[in-house]
Amino acid sequence: MNLHRALAAVERFRVLDGVAATASRVAGTAVDRARLGGVLRGSWLGHPVHPLLVTVPIGAWTTSAVFDVVFKDPAAARRLVGIGLLATPPTVLAGWADYALLNRPQQRVGLVHAASNGTAVLLFALSYRAYRRERLPAARRYCLLGLAAMGVGGALGGHLSYAQGAGVFRWQPVRALTDRSPREYLHAA
């Protein structure tokens, strides 16, 4: 199986176009109304914020499995799952701020990326609850399913960046190279 072909197939899910248009409009309006677009997109840093923030939930949730399975420390695993859940809201906000700038094929992939990661968040929330209730088999099962969903979401996020070029040249002088604004450049891709 060619993973690139499977990920690229999501770009052609035209059935998502109505939802993508609405999600883009809502994301753009919410971010612009709150005047958070530049902050959430990382203009203050000169680097997109979403890819930096995702490392916290990914690292916490992956490490939680290691602490539970390898070190037999479900309390530490529960805390790590909680850290990942706490890091999720700013990560999601930064992702939605970026979403508003994507072209339609990128938005299709972005929706499936968000749905997969949303599934992961739900599964990790269930894992956290199971850990708190000391239902370790259920906690582990939810954690493993969450890791799988997170892996799919991560692969789609990587496809957005590396195959589709989402966010590429965001702060570089694109106008000088193409005679287009960065937004025009991204939407023409």
Automatic annotation (TrEMBL):
<dbReference type="Pfam" id="PF09990">
    <property type="entry name" value="DUF2231"/>
</dbReference>
<feature type="transmembrane region" description="Helical">
    <location>
        <begin position="142"/>
        <end position="162"/>
    </location>
</feature>
<feature type="domain" description="DUF2231">
    <location>
        <begin position="46"/>
        <end position="168"/>
    </location>
</feature>
<keyword id="KW-0812">Transmembrane</keyword>
<feature type="transmembrane region" description="Helical">
    <location>
        <begin position="80"/>
        <end position="97"/>
    </location>
</feature>
<keyword id="KW-0472">Membrane</keyword>
<dbReference type="InterPro" id="IPR019251">
    <property type="entry name" value="DUF2231_TM"/>
</dbReference>
<feature type="transmembrane region" description="Helical">
    <location>
        <begin position="109"/>
        <end position="130"/>
    </location>
</feature>
<protein>
    <recommendedName>
        <fullName>DUF2231 domain-containing protein</fullName>
    </recommendedName>
</protein>
<keyword id="KW-1133">Transmembrane helix</keyword>
